[in-house]
Amino acid sequence: MLTSWVNSWWKPSQNQHFRGHRGMNDVSSVWESIREEQESAVDAVDAVSDSFDGYDDDDDLESLSSLDYHENLLSAQQQWQESLEQLSQVFNWVLLPLVGKYLGRRTALAAWKRVLQYVWRTS
Question: The whole model's pTM is what?
Answer without folding.
Answer: 0.38
